[in-house]
Amino acid sequence: MKKLAWAPLGAVALAITAFAPAQAADMKSVAVTAIVEHPALDAVRDGVKAALQAEGFEEGKNLKWQYQSAQGNPGTAAQIARKFVGDKPDAIVAIATPSAQAVVASTKTVPVVFSAVTDPVAAKLVPSWEPSKTNVTGVSDLLALDKQMELLKKVVPNAKRVGMVYNPGEANSAVVVKELKTLLPKMGMTLVEAAAPRSVDVSSAARSLVGKADVIYTNTDNNVVSSYEALVKVGQDSKLPLVASDTDSVARGAVAALGINYRDLGEQTGRMVARILKGEKPGDIKTEVSSKMELHVNPGAAEKQGIKLSDELVKSAAKVIQ
Amino acid sequence: MTLFSFLGAIEIGLIFALVALGVFISFRLLRFPDLTVDGSFPLGAAVCAVMITGGYSPLLATIGATLAGAVAGLITGWLNVKLKIMDLLASILMMIALYSINLRIMGGPNIPLINDPTLFNQLQPAGIEDYVFRPLLMCVIVVLAKLAMDWFFLTERGLAIRATGTNARMARAQGVNTGGMILLGMAVSNGLVGLAGALFAQTQGGADSSMGIGTIVIGLAAVIVGESILPSRKLILATLAVVIGAIVYRFFIALALNVDFIGLKAQDLNLVTALLVTVALVIPQLKRRFAKKH
């Protein structure tokens, strides 16, 4: 029965011999990896594929498409990066920061297009927002805060104090707070912070803003987004309007949001990949931010939170939730 | 499988061999179910990344990360031995505490090390590709760690640690300070895990607060796969089995990433891992049953 113990080794031998199938010369290959499967990241992946198809790259016809998720595991992310680099595809699309870092650390030659990375410069994927002159470019999901604050002004014209509930342990939120602290004073407003380190703290953090803020702004903080209903309750009870930064929260009770649609972000990424497949060098393509922001409004929620949205604003919205 | 992903599997397997050696100490030698590793792995990465970006040499940063891991293990042991908190619970407490501590150390959830000096690019001689050199250097590090461990657990103190795990009451009767041995064993175990975290950060582009997830499963899988490939009661062979187990496990992952032809997909990866560990656990039982019949 000694033989059975060697079964795993047999499988390893099989793994070693399982070479990737050869590709036809006119086939382009794109390898996509994400750190984890989650609705926004999946939407990016699907958007990339749709945009490639629109640009004439169809899977099975002239495109070899492969997708691997690391299922949240960093060791696997590293190994996926190695596999992809070894396969030498025409482009690797890396979705979210940890996956992008693993891929960029593994290759200096294979073109890499990152997506849904909030700050690619801080993550050292690219040296600056200008064309990198390396093998890396991509699309960031950084929120245009100035445009969001303009929206906030339109929703609550006499707002002076902007309350924000967020988790101090979340990097994306910390970045937003830092930027708001310099941006808001220029617009004649101030920031009032309320920390919610756990999602169960969101409600009490929001209540602490009553009387101290004229409006509550929320970013895509995971704690806040996961318990948005708690915020809505406070907003209605104390007539504090909520302005969100993701469009999904509007349907859940925010008054308005000017946000990124991750499917569009994926399509933007896909168009960038197509440019590389057609011969452009990734180092010559500037890192982009989301080109399309969508306005969603909820007049019913506005009424409950004690304000009325202007007809002009409602008319300009891409989606009005009744 | 391409040469690049083959060598990648060896390199990552060797890094996780250090985790597996640490898990082997806690689970097998000390019989201490230790989940601290899910926190001490990113702790090692965090300390190493902060020190390197702060201008310290990669060698010093790697040593610092190892010590940080050892301290984490020491605290878990202390919670258990001195505060009498159940072993599993003590390690869970330490694991969740480390999540916050790692965020504090890094000052954010991610520190990239993409263009910074690392042990690997500093020692890399000209004329050898990095993807070839990294597994070579890892091989040297793992062999040294394994030999040091073999030596340590044959010293009087090491034997006392093993006696504590095998039969604490008997060990105490022989005058062994079992509490102290648990502290020491946990420190060595998590020191190895911290070292692995530091090396991982230096090869994979940086430290990330989410990188500890599943470390314990990978470590255990490596230990169990190793034991079923090379069953032995001798420590020197047992530690070798653990190293082999970690590498074989990586080949299974590489296989799972290459298995379009069987119809498996990306989302099946964790299932493949669970199946692998199950098979490895069942093999020894089958062997026993088979041996009885004949």
TrEMBL record, chain A:
<dbReference type="InterPro" id="IPR028082">
    <property type="entry name" value="Peripla_BP_I"/>
</dbReference>
<keyword id="KW-0732">Signal</keyword>
<dbReference type="InterPro" id="IPR007487">
    <property type="entry name" value="ABC_transpt-TYRBP-like"/>
</dbReference>
<protein>
    <submittedName>
        <fullName>ABC transporter substrate-binding protein</fullName>
    </submittedName>
</protein>
<feature type="signal peptide">
    <location>
        <begin position="1"/>
        <end position="24"/>
    </location>
</feature>
<dbReference type="Pfam" id="PF04392">
    <property type="entry name" value="ABC_sub_bind"/>
</dbReference>
UniProtKB/TrEMBL annotation, chain B:
<dbReference type="InterPro" id="IPR001851">
    <property type="entry name" value="ABC_transp_permease"/>
</dbReference>
<feature type="transmembrane region" description="Helical">
    <location>
        <begin position="6"/>
        <end position="27"/>
    </location>
</feature>
<feature type="transmembrane region" description="Helical">
    <location>
        <begin position="235"/>
        <end position="257"/>
    </location>
</feature>
<keyword id="KW-0472">Membrane</keyword>
<feature type="transmembrane region" description="Helical">
    <location>
        <begin position="175"/>
        <end position="199"/>
    </location>
</feature>
<dbReference type="GO" id="GO:0022857">
    <property type="term" value="F:transmembrane transporter activity"/>
</dbReference>
<keyword id="KW-1133">Transmembrane helix</keyword>
<protein>
    <submittedName>
        <fullName>ABC transporter permease</fullName>
    </submittedName>
</protein>
<feature type="transmembrane region" description="Helical">
    <location>
        <begin position="269"/>
        <end position="286"/>
    </location>
</feature>
<feature type="transmembrane region" description="Helical">
    <location>
        <begin position="211"/>
        <end position="230"/>
    </location>
</feature>
<dbReference type="Pfam" id="PF02653">
    <property type="entry name" value="BPD_transp_2"/>
</dbReference>
<keyword id="KW-1003">Cell membrane</keyword>
<feature type="transmembrane region" description="Helical">
    <location>
        <begin position="88"/>
        <end position="111"/>
    </location>
</feature>
<feature type="transmembrane region" description="Helical">
    <location>
        <begin position="63"/>
        <end position="81"/>
    </location>
</feature>
<keyword id="KW-0812">Transmembrane</keyword>
<dbReference type="GO" id="GO:0005886">
    <property type="term" value="C:plasma membrane"/>
</dbReference>
<feature type="transmembrane region" description="Helical">
    <location>
        <begin position="131"/>
        <end position="154"/>
    </location>
</feature>
